[in-house]
Design goal:
The structure is a homodimer of 408-residue chains.
Chain A (H helix, E strand, L loop, with lengths): L6 E7 L7 H12 L5 E7 L2 H6 L3 E3 L5 H8 L15 H13 L2 E8 L1 H17 L4 E6 L15 H21 L3 E6 L6 H4 L14 E3 L7 H15 L2 E6 L10 H5 L15 H16 L4 E5 L3 H4 L6 H21 L3 E9 L2 E7 L1 H4 L20 H7 L27
Parallel strand pairs in A: 1-2, 1-4, 4-5, 5-10, 6-8, 6-9, 7-8
Antiparallel strand pairs in A: 2-3, 10-11
Helix pairs in contact in A: 1-3, 1-12, 4-5
């Protein structure tokens, strides 16, 4: 065993923050502090950038009380990064890890972060440096392969579900057409969550557009019209990542300038997309009250809208990561598997099975016509949302007969 | 007393929905059902439009259980309207009220709705029709004169506060410039609420722009730069209603088309405003990561982010409205007055003191420089937000000394 002696643990957080990413970090810290062979638990500030820069903090000196408070706080407490390491970057990582005697590296993030862990682990093997590298899953997009779902998604889904419950009620009081753009580059899971609060047959969102199906402007407009004709209003949930039949994001088609991150991902602001489609609805269909919102960064960081199931599981993936690394002495990615209704177990999956890959909504979750989701999806999502989901009331409306003929 | 005989009660909801507007409606219904001289309690669907159209529902037939569930549900359960009545409209209202034997009219809404009640009450007097007309306050903008604050504002403020707590944490993890646009046409109360979650000296929002102070692009850009130089990041909360020194809304200056409602109010979408300012920051200051969100309709209808103080008071204004009308036999607007820390009492204020007028942030709530709020404001807001406000944790960061010189 390469790490049989006393060694240090390093934990870092990468990619977009979530509401529960600190649960995983605290899970690593508290579990690692139990092992006698762990001399210190370090955190790197701002992800792998902090490893290269050696901006380490000693988490062994944090109180348990404060760690628990941080665990309840959304967004990466250690800071994050979107850096993607090349060979030179990795060599700098090793110099830092080696110099500080790090034997266990835990990186909490999405599929890009998993790929970073894969590269670091491979380079460690080549360099003969004794290092266990574990990727801990996190993403609100829910797009990691090999996972039933990923920590961060359930809380973001709860936010989107509650947002659209309110939006539907608002739109019912002041009828019109409403477009709400939801995060999700390639996977529509989060947008699909907008449907979970529907209770009555006329509740919105009435139309749901996912990146998994080609978006056609004409069909969109005729669907909005058909819905407005039927209900006198229309609520649309659309993914920021919707594409045309050539797989070109609609947002890119409309954007005047394109911004890319270090991973080559185009930055998708939903704002222009939703605003542009709202303008189209107004112009082509002639509706007067057409409104558009982009749910934006609130989806991943809103304070006070968290799934307790998500909190628990995010803690567990951190804890399990340490157990796999310290007892199992293997590299890998922690994956979540549903084994009961509702229960999960955690496995250590080879990094190359998860890294850089993207899971999308399976066909059985998407309604045939492509603008709604199925009961199978709702059955999948409901247990993830946790306790205390709100329920919407409605008056029973005993109509009073009219008396006067107002004429006009 | 004109209404000493048996009579009917009519309640309606006007203007933009809030998270607690149904508390006031249910407060009216449950209290009115206690009075022997009340034969029936009707609700008008879609505000005064529903009076003209006689689309009444008999709320006397609603169960108490269902009313309580509706009370907990955001957005006007009876539907709303933005109609502003002219004389002809008012005459149609009277025909309907008279035909249905309505003796008590309760209208829940903002200053435009108060003005509607004022006109209806005046026309009733002229027509010699025995009608008690009461305006029940509601607005997330908190801009009704004669009130310490208005129902709906505390819950919306709680949403904005929790949103910016999360946004600040997100921005701290992935530093950059962030602009968040908050609702508020003339009054900056809701935007100012963005500051309430600040806990550490470097917490955002670092800059707060209110409609009460002229917005100058150059000063804005230099303030963003100064903040980014100091903290390496900058979070801005700005009101959709910010104006230049000629009182022209910045949003209007940027909008290609202008949409007005029946009250002549320009529809302010914050989206183009925030997006345009973000573009300016990127171009003029050269920052790479600049993001903009518009909090949009979520602010007034989000399910599951409600102040219990707001719920209680919204219920009370409905209950008091019935008591004033049935015992006091006067028209008026229910107003909220702070009489303790924290305690309120309710008064019946003449309609013309409230109707059509707009309260804005007093000078003592705005920091001298104009881009922050004062402790006086925070002391004013805190008790309104209710129980269970979230608190943000932070690691204490015991730095580990660097070992290797990475050179690059």
């Amino acid at each position: 065993m390469p790490n049989s002696g006393v060694s240090k643990v390093l934990v870092a957080q990468g990619g977009g923050p979530t509401a529960v990413i600190n649960q995983s970090m605290v899970g690593v810290v508290l579990e690692a502090r139990k092992f006698q062979q762990v001399e210190r638990v370090y955190g790197a500030l701002y992800g792998i950038r902090g490893i290269v820069d050696q901006t380490f903090v000693d988490l062994t000196q944090e109180t348990t009380q404060n760690l628990e408070m941080v665990a309840e706080t959304p967004s990466s407490a250690l800071g994050s990064t979107r850096d993607k390491p090349d060979l030179k970057y990795c060599q700098a990582i090793f110099r830092a890890l080696k110099a500080h005697g790090i034997g266990y590296f835990f990186y909490i993030g999405g599929n890009d972060s998993a790929d970073t862990v894969r590269i670091v682990a491979a380079e460690a093997r080549v360099a003969g440096y004794p290092l266990r590298s574990i990727h801990i899953p996190k993403t609100i997009d829910n797009d990691l392969v090999g996972n039933d779902h990923t920590p961060g998604f359930p809380s973001a889904a709860r936010f989107v579900a509650q947002a659209f419950m309110g939006i539907n009620l608002d739109n019912r009081a002041l009828p019109g057409v409403y477009l709400g753009a939801v995060m999700g580059r390639h996977a529509g899971f989060l947008t699909a969550a907008a449907t979970i609060g529907r209770k009555f047959a006329d509740d919105g969102p009435h139309l749901v557009y996912l990146p998994e199906r080609a978006f056609e402007i004409d069909r969109f407009l005729s669907s909005v019209k058909a819905t407005a004709d039927k209900y006198g209003r229309c609520v649309v949930a659309l993914s920021e990542g919707i594409c045309d039949n050539q797989h070109v994001p609609i947002a890119n088609l409309l954007a005047s300038t394109v911004e890319k991150d270090a991973h080559g991902n185009v930055y998708l602001g939903g704002g222009p997309l939703a605003d542009h489609l709202a303008k189209l609805v107004k112009e082509k269909l002639g509706y007067k009250r057409v409104r558009a919102d982009t749910l934006g960064y609130l989806q991943r960081s809103f304070v006070g809208c968290v799934s307790d199931v998500d909190q628990r599981e995010a803690r567990e993936v951190g804890e399990k990561a340490v157990q796999f690394a310290l007892w199992g002495d293997r590299d890998g990615s922690i994956t979540i598997h549903r084994t009961g209704d509702y229960f999960v177990e955690y496995r250590l999956t080879p990094l190359d099975e998860v890294a850089g890959k993207t899971k999308t909504m399976p066909d059985e979750f998407i309604d045939g016509a492509g603008w709604d989701v199925t009961d199978a999806f709702r059955g999948y999502l409901r247990p993830l949302l946790g306790k205390g989901m709100s329920d919407a009331g409605r008056l029973r409306h005993s109509a009073v007969p009219k008396i006067v003929d107002q004429g006009d």
